[in-house]
Specification:
3 helices, mainly alpha, secreted, signal
Length: about 80
Amino acid sequence: MASTLMIFLIVILSLMSSQARILKGERAMQKNIDNQLLLHELGFDLSKLKAYRKMSTPEPRSDRVSPGGPDPQHHF
């Protein structure tokens, strides 16, 4: 019983002290830069590509109108 409790405490303490880290973070960033460089070398305008990407991404509609509240003639 005591040995099981001791093993449990060791496992819990080791999990508490572990830290998360990003794997392949720099590699992914470098790949993005390489893609942009390749597109630029192929003659694409990166600013136009960003604009096209922004236009193709659906944005939430903001033309909704909130109601003015309860109708005063409804409640007599």
